[in-house]
Design goal:
Elements (H helix, E strand, L loop, with lengths): L2 H6 L4 E4 L10 H26 L2 H27 L13 H31 L6 H29 L2 H30 L4 H28 L6 H14 L4 E12 L2 E10 L5 H18 L3 E9 L7
Parallel strand pairs: 3-4
Antiparallel strand pairs: 1-4, 2-3
Helix pairs in contact: 2-3, 2-5, 3-4, 3-6, 3-7, 4-6, 4-7, 5-6, 6-7, 8-9
């Protein structure tokens, strides 16, 4: 078989630039912190809701309950996503994280529906809030706690590039903001004596929760349907190839890329000059994979080798 024929039928080579084991700090420990935090806040909010009779505080407890479920989902999803590829999942399990984020978004919307129903019922039937000071203290503590934990989760999500942790952090950040709204509503009840401020505040909280849920669903769905990487990441791939400067590389085309969890999957065709040996083309492809991996964290790169005279099919 001629050298040209071997090049035309050459198989591609793959490499992983960054593997799950290299991602520090661990993702599951961060999700465990979120579980513990939400469990404590649920107990405090339920107790405060029972004492005060506030629907706004009760909706906060419902919100935290949803956050707890989301944290549990995130905990198990990040553990599953870090499992190595197997016979049934040759591309790995990273998309479990995107699926978990989608589930979290749907849970948020369900919780918002419950809040709207109960708030409208309270507005229609009327209600009275008592011992407001206790409620204000609990909600203020909740807001501070959620801000601290969400900041911690955002840092872990950035360090590990985890969609599940990012979604969990977004839940808690939204909870902190809605807690601030509940505080304002309770303060208005205390100052004016108008009880309607309590359910009205709960409705505003529900609107904020819906926005958060839709945003998470939008982001996770884009990954689940294999949307391409952002332009800046594709540009990083192109720049890595252009900066390599191997004289044997003529051009490249058919660049495709997608994301699954914290992993990026990139594949492209690279054309080599006439007379380039298969061994040399293979060496260059590994060099290119390493160069792309340095610019694009968590990249699994597949390169198809082509001879110079092969017609491009874009």
């Amino acid at each position: 078989m001629s050298q040209r024929s071997r090049l035309a039928g050459a198989a591609a080579a793959t490499t992983r630039a960054v593997g799950p084991d290299a991602q520090m700090p661990r993702k599951d420990s961060a999700a465990a912190v979120s579980i513990a935090s939400n469990a404590i806040l649920i107990v405090l909010k339920l107790a405060a809701a029972a004492i005060t009779g506030s629907i706004a505080i009760l909706t906060e407890a419902a919100h935290s309950s949803i956050d707890l479920i989301a944290s549990v989902v995130a905990f198990y999803s990040v553990r599953k996503a870090d499992e190595p590829a197997d016979e049934d999942h040759p591309y790995g399990h990273q998309k479990v994280e995107n699926l978990a984020a989608a589930i979290e978004g749907m849970l948020i919307l369900v919780g918002a529906g419950v809040i709207v129903f109960e708030s409208v019922r309270r507005l229609a039937q009327g209600s009275e809030v008592e011992s407001i000071g206790i409620g204000i203290a609990v909600i203020a503590f909740s807001a501070v706690a959620n801000l601290v934990v969400s900041g911690y989760l955002y840092r872990r999500a950035k360090a590990t590039d985890s969609p599940a942790l990012e979604g969990d952090a977004a839940h808690l950040r939204a909870d902190a903001f809605t807690s601030t709204g509940v505080l304002a509503g309770l303060a208005m009840v205390e100052i004016t004596g108008v009880q309607a401020f309590d359910p009205v505040t709960a409705l505003l909280v529900a609107a904020a929760i819906v926005f958060s849920g839709l945003r998470i669903l939008n982001r996770s769905s884009r990954a689940l349907v294999d949307e391409t990487l952002p332009p800046e990441e594709l540009d990083a791939v192109r720049q890595a190839i252009e900066d390599h400067g191997a004289r044997e590389v003529v051009s490249f085309h058919k660049l495709r890329a997608r994301r699954a969890g914290s992993r990026r999957h990139v594949d492209l065709h690279v054309q080599f000059t006439e007379g380039t040996s298969l061994r040399r083309a293979h060496e260059i492809s590994h060099e290119l994979q390493a160069a792309i991996g340095k610019r694009l964290r968590g990249a699994d790169v597949l390169i198809h080798l082509e001879p110079e005279d092969r017609a491009r099919q874009r």
